[in-house]
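>> received
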Amino acid sequence: MTALFSVPWLLPAIAGLFGLLFGSFLNVCSLRWPQDQSVVSPPSHCPGCDMPIRWFDNGPVLSWLVLRGRCRQCEEPISIQYPLVELATGLMWAGVFAAHGPSWEAVRGSIFLTILFGIALSDARFYIIPHEMSWGGAALGLAMAFLPGGITAVSAVLGAAFGYGVLWLVAVGGTWLIRKVSPERLEEHGVDSAMGGGDINMMTMVGAFVGMWGVGLTIFLGSVLALIIHGPISMVYRRLIPFGVFLAAAAAVAYMWGDVIWGWYLTKILL
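>> returned
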């Protein structure tokens, strides 16, 4: 086994193949869970003619290319989102395993980034963060904290509680402030709270994977990204971008480079 992994590119390549498969499943989850649909039944089918997709037409990326992006039966276009999500997930898995090698931390990190990607896809399209990804992801994060190489179980529990608590306080405080200053703002957007419950649940999951320091960095970076990106896009396209998308991107950065960012901040800014 050691000799097998001595080839530098082999492990990332194998992990990337697994990532393609997870990306194919992620497409199903991010489309069905926000609509309260089962990811098992009915099986994959064409949205145009409703015909089941045969197993040999359901492979990640390659099947889409072979079919030239069209259904074999009705020749309706198949969204390019499917191969792009599969490819992106495959590259994520390959990159994490290239960074961490054959370790449990590589598995943990790949699963965490995949969940974040699914949350971003679901929130961007449906403005919903499925409980399967938030609470289910939190359970996975807490369970995987007992594996060697990552944060401790205590750090995971504290991070999950901190992530939930901070976002809950922001939601309650923000709602109170808006109702005092400009109550019509909530009515304009058809909401009764400054922050959705999905974002709060999501940060519970993030905390279970990255701990309290990671939660703090995620909230800070997510807020900065939202301020920079949200305004121009919303003005041009007249469309709100859900905060969960920015939190997902920020959490990925916190996981991959959190220690470097905190180290730079503590040594270059505070000292």
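>> The mean pLDDT is 88.
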